Structure prediction request, 193 residues.
Amino acid sequence: MYILILITLSIFGALGAPSTESKTCTTGESYLGITCAEQALDFSTKISRLDTANTEERNKFKQPCEDLDYCYRKTKHCEAFDNENVKEKFALIQLICKTINFVTGDFAGCEEELRDEDSDCFKNFDMLSNNQEDIDFDDEDTARDSCQNFFGKEGCLKREVEEHCGSRDWEKLKNFLLSINDKVKQCDQNGHL
Prediction:
C-alpha cells in the first residue's frame, strides 16, 4: 500500500540522542535511550527507502518496530525522552509500525488483490491527509470535505475494497483507519458531520 510511503514522507527531522545525565534514569536506561535514538534514526532512514509493494521488504520492519516499541516503553519516563519532539517522533514510529503490521497481517490478502487489480482509488489514497491532526472541524466546509473524502475521494475506497475483497476486509480497513485518527470520529458513517 502506498500508505507507508505517504506516512514516511512526513517523518523525522532528527531525534537526537538522549543525554546520559537524566535524573530519573538509571545508567542502564540512559544507555538504552542512546541505543533507542540510534535505532530510531536508522529506522527513519530505512523506512524512507521502503518499496511498499515488496512484502518481504515490509516484513523486515517487524522486528525493528518491536525493538523500538520496547525501547520507548522502557525509557519514556527518562528526562531526555520526556519532551514533545521525542514523543511526536515515537508516536509517528508507532503509527508507521501499526500500519506495517496491519498491511502485512490482517489486510495482506486484500492489499495484494487491490495491487493486482491496479486499483486507482487504493493507489491514490492519501492516508496523510486523513491523519492530519490540524483539520479544523470548526470550519464547516473543511470538516465536510475531510469527512466526505476520509475513505478516498467520495468514498471510493469502500466500493473498491468491497468489490475486490468483500465487506469483511472493508470493515477491517475502516476500523484500522478510524483507530489511527481521533478527529475523524466526529464524522458519521456517511462521511458527514
About this structure: The chain has two domains: 3-91, 108-186. Residues 1-22 have pLDDT under 50 and may be disordered. Residues 108-186 form one domain. The chain has eleven helices and no strands.
